[in-house]
Amino acid sequence: MIINSPLFREVNPLYDEDSLPPIGLGYIASTLEIKGFSVKLVDSIADSISLKGLQNIIKKYNPSVIATNIFTTNYNLVKELIENLEDQTRKIVIGGLSTRTLYEKIFLWTYKGEIDVIFGDGELILPDILKRKEVQSPNDKIKNRRYFKIDTLSPYFCKDISTLPLNRSFFLMSLSNIL
Fold this sequence. Notes:
The chain is α/β, with parallel strands linked by helices. The protein has one domain: Rossmann fold (3-Layer(aba) Sandwich), CATH 3.40.50.280. Helix content is about 30%, strand content about 15%. The protein has six helices and seven strands, in the order βαβαβαβαβαββα. The protein has a seven-stranded mixed beta sheet, with helices on both faces. The radius of gyration is 15 Å and the shape is globular.
């Protein structure tokens, strides 16, 4: 399950800005799908899903892996979501630009399972992480926490994003299709 992480704990009726599709997460979902993984993309922003609603969706689908983005503004929400998962054996993958400065804090979360943090392009490395066949060593590692920096020197750096598949139907799914 790939989650566009929430910005608010509760549904905020005053938040009426148009949301853009999470294109980066769509690229990741599309790549995983082509590699044979079953993928659900949950856009908690576009579908106004509360933290509790997101927890219920996770409980319903019981994914073996949860990949989500994180921002400095919703760090505490994502931390709460992950730390309060009932099943603490599933793999967690956290990505986003803010992971460059947040990964050491993420390493300290009380979640018992594995957490991989990716800074930079996640499209090409995530399938290998899930298969446990990474060709790049983590840039940092502590116990069951790993940090990967995908930059121009990385074998997972996407030199031309236009060559990546993008299944646009991930963006057509509404909350009613997920539930």
